[in-house]
Structures
1.
Amino acid sequence: MRMYLLLFLSILSLGCGSSNGVQLGTVVGTVHYLDEPIPDGKIIFEVPGSRPAVGQIVHGEIVDVTTYEVGDGVPVGEAKIAIFGFDPKNDGDQGYMDMNRKSIIPTHYNNPSTSELVCTIKPEQNELEFELTK
């Protein structure tokens, strides 16, 4: 009986993750604009049929990409990407998701539908590099 209880608890724990059964891949990498690292920003990954993932850009490095829990990653699949780059000297009224901050990159990168940035997220660590131009 004890063995069945342990087996049941083990199976139950597999389904208790906060990813709701969605397979995730972790993301690390860099983001540059005109060959300079973006000092401060956000990156958004949109995979059709899944919740968007949001990460931070700190000194050009992509960190803490999150779908359900901090750092858990991006849903596996073809992702459209939006990138926001901010002037760290202009913190002012940041507003929701930093939307009131001054952008240092062209605004077409701020929308996954217009950025033309896409990548395939695999169920492992994904190393991405973005070199943004005007």
2.
Amino acid sequence: MRRSRPRRRTGSRWDPDTSDKWWLLVAVHLGAIPLLFALALVGRGVVLLVGQGSAGFVRTLLLLALYVMLFVAGPVGVFFDKKYVRSVSGWTPTRWYYLMFFVPFSWVMAADYLWRRHRHVGTP
């Protein structure tokens, strides 16, 4: 007996083709960058809070979570938000915005994307 694939729900709030909320991932990406630098600067405070033995582990987990936000959230948000922006405005975001995962360009690319999206779509 063959199983049929479940139907894809359309019109839901987080449907990639109709959702206008994917820019939030780009905003998370933009917000994670200062947090990453602040955590690097406050690393000594982590040692004082949790002790010498587990400080490295805690700091590594926090940095790993921020790196995931930094490298995954931005490009994934651009990928899905690009479909929505293209459908409601005349602007088609370029593929250059996928360079957000590359750290030297990430802050500039995320801020530029959100600014241009605001000019063409009106949100954020």
